[in-house]
Amino acid sequence: MAIFLTKESRVLVQGMTGGEGMKHTRRMLAAGTNVVGGVNPRKAGRAVDFDDRVVPVFGSVADGIRATGADVTVVFVPPAFAEAAVVEAADAGIGLVVVITEGIPVHDTVAFTSYAKKKGTRIIGPNCPGLITPGQSNAGIIPADITRSGRIGLVSKSGTLTYQLMYELRDIGFSTCVGIGGDPVVGTSHIDCLAAFQDDPDTELVVLIGEIGGDAEERAAAHIRDHVTKPVVGYIAGFTAPEGRTMGHAGAIVSGSAGTAQAKKAALEAVGVKVGATPSETARLVLSLLDTVRKAPQA
Amino acid sequence: MDLYEHEARALVEEHGIPVPRAEVTDSPEEARAIARRLGGSVVVKAQVKTGGRGKAGGVRLAADPAEAERTTRRILGTDIKGHRVRKVMLAQPADIESEFYVAYVLDRAAGRFLAIASAAGGMDIEEVAATRPEAVVRMPVDPAEGVTSAKAGAIAEAAGLPPRTVDVLVRLWEVLVREDAVLVEVNPLVRTRQGQLLALDGKVTLDDNARFRQARWGNDSIAYDDPLEAAAAAKGLNYVKLDGEVGIIGNGAGLVMSTLDVVAGCGARPANFLDIGGGASAQVMADGLSVVLSDPAVKSVFVNVFGGITACDAVADGIVKALDEVRPTKPLVVRLDGNNAARGRTVLDERAHPLVQQATTMDGAARRAAELANTG
Predict the structure, then answer these.
(1) Shortest CB distance from A167 goes to which of B207, B337, B363?
(2) What residue in A sits closest to B81 (Cα-Cα)?
(3) DSSP code of A258?
(4) Is 50 exceeded by the pLDDT of residue A165?
(5) How much is the mean pLDDT over chain B?
(6) A249 is catalytic
(7) Of A163, A237, A280, the CB nearest to B306
């Protein structure tokens, strides 16, 4: 098993025929993803030849689902059209929408995440690298060849830090790695992923990567205290970021004492989460904890 | 993007919320003429993008045009919490009977907007919120419904605001939605002794992501205090000037923040934050490097790239391009991993520039860059 995405997942790509869509669909296919179709109302009925696989283009998400039984869609459409793309997917009844698009106005994100929730559709992102279940499926833009399948779950706001930790722990391997995105409003939270990893028998330990801004990590800490029995190792970026300055991500800004890396680290440590000072130390903490867990007598 | 008070005032007024008459200037002589036009007595308000202006002496009452000129002269050019005063707004004073607070803010945790309202507005609203939280009403707004008259009525009633504020609450929501704002705040919203409602001061933060459909914003409001930040912004780079000596370039906000932390952990201070973003081309990398190298405080540069969408060979090509164009005199430590890393490392090896060293780990590279900055 894994969370949210497995080799059975049947994936549509909204915006597949665009430049980014083509490039990453090719990569997803190479990673083993079962890409069953693209969506573009102006190119319905055509197909795209990706080396050894021909992928049909549908006029709508609903058509794609009818023809293929798709249950996941990955959105690569430009920011101005992202809200409509997500609403269309939710209306078609798809279970998971992965929104890669960066730079979506927050009013649009508020509207489509709220709408999707009412429809029972899970959104990952926006402005995220997507998620990968190594060896099974890759929905998004995470490089597939830096790690292998294993028993660590990973959830992160940052794309490149996701890659960094996947790489540091490549020999151990991952059940699923989820990049939830760095925007102030995202469809799936650290908590949603922690809950899913807790229920996933294939996940032994969870790595949680956070960064300055907001209080998502503090809320995750409270959730861990109350609901998570699996070991969790944390890493927080932004200790040296100055107050009041936006550091890249829309969400990465410190205001007052709220949202500091120190506050997030303290909140996680208070509930027993070990927090690394650097990505490499975080990886070492994971290794030593896995050792301890595996040596402990089975209950 | 935060707006100046006078810009926020103009937006709010455009949407039909009453504001006092006011004008903006950067000249004391003109301030005198404005005061005369506004009836003699005016409030002179420093235009800076920071709170706590009143307490820092940036808001003063002038009894007549001559005093308006003197006060303007005194306030212009001063520094309020690190923000230099370049303009003042002169506004008609209001005869205040009571002060209220109304705002819509993004509630990140809930993923929606929140109405915040209080019958105890004014300068000390933060203190009210801290000491008497029950005096501040917080009410989520359903994005599909927005703030209708009925919703506004419920907010006003819960906060103990007079019924006439309902219209202001509806219009303020319109400002938020139509202008793609992530924060709109009126504080104080006052009732004058003459029975008029007026938005005396306000704050608006626009969503930079909505720039594509809000063309009229232009770039007027973006006043970078640092010339390199302005130069970087012009090239579409995400650059923030910091106080240290190690220039830092990376791809992705999370990795760059992490790089700052790791360098600081090695006993050096980061000189800046520069994110070349995802899928950066050789040109973007070259631009980034030239911005960082032109900061005289920089003693060494650490380029930390984990290629995902970004290809490491493009990054290496950009470094080589910049070396030839900028002719740096400071050492560079480069760490490349991920997509096309091997090819990227080869490109740098072949160029064999005496100032460029490669490192195989993020920690090792940070240590080396810190050493070079501390001994350089």
Answers:
(1) B337
(2) A244
(3) B
(4) yes
(5) 92
(6) yes
(7) A163
The whole-angstrom distance between residue A157's C-alpha and the CA centroid of its chain comes to 8
pLDDT at B220 over 70: no
Rounded to whole angstroms, the Cα distance separating A197 from A203 reads 6
Three-state SS for A149? Answer: strand
Could you check whether the bond before residue B162 is cis, i.e. omega within 30 degrees of 0?
Answer: no
pTM above 0.95, yes or no: no
Q: How many residues does chain A have?
A: 299
Among the options B69, B185, B229, B245, which is catalytic? B185
Please check whether residue B209 is in contact with residue A251, taking contact to mean a CB–CB distance below 8 angstroms: no
Structure confidence by residue, pLDDT tens digits, A167-197: 999 999 999 999 999 999 999 999 999 999 9
Q: How many distinct helices (H) and strands (E) make up chain A?
A: 9, 14
- Classify residue B296 as exposed, middle or buried by CB count within 10 Å of its CB (0-12, 13-18, 19+): exposed
Q: What is the mean pLDDT of residues A129-156?
A: 96
A18 in Cβ contact with A77 (< 8 Å): yes
Tens of pLDDT along B20-33?
999 999 999 999 99
Exactly one of B101, B104, B179, B245 is catalytic; which is it? B101
What is the CB-side half-sphere exposure of residue B336 using CA atoms within 13 A? 26
- How many CB atoms sit inside 10 A of residue B353's CB? 14
ipTM: 0.92
| 3-class state of residue B297 by DSSP | coil
Contact between chains at A143 and B338 (C-beta distance less than 8 A): yes
* Residue at B29: amino acid letter: E
Question: How far is residue B34 from each of residues A184, B24, B26, B88, B200, measured CA to CA in Å?
Answer: 41, 9, 12, 11, 18
| E runs forming strands in chain B | 22-25, 42-46, 59-62, 79-80, 83-84, 88-91, 96-107, 112-118, 136-141, 181-192, 197-199, 202-206, 238-241, 246-250, 272-275, 300-307, 332-338, 356-358
Q: Which residues of B touch A185 (CB under 8 A)?
A: 106, 108, 111-112
Rounded (10°) CA dihedral A285, A286, A287, A292? 90
Residue B25's Cα: distance from chain center in Å? 22
Structure confidence at residue B219 (pLDDT): 54
Whether residues A280 and B256 touch (CB distance < 8 A) is answered with no
Burial class of B26 by CB neighbour count within 10 A (0 to 12, 13 to 18, 19+): middle
Is residue B101 part of the annotated active site? The answer reads yes
Reading the block at residue A77, the tokens are 């459409």
Out of A103, A143, A246, name the one closest to residue B339 (CB).
A143
Which residues of chain A does B109 touch, with a Cβ-Cβ cutoff of 8 Å?
A: 214-216, 219
Q: Which of A35, A30, A31, A63 is nearest to A48 (CA)?
A: A35
pLDDT in tens, B235-294: 888 899 999 999 999 999 999 999 999 999 999 999 999 999 888 889 999 999 999 999
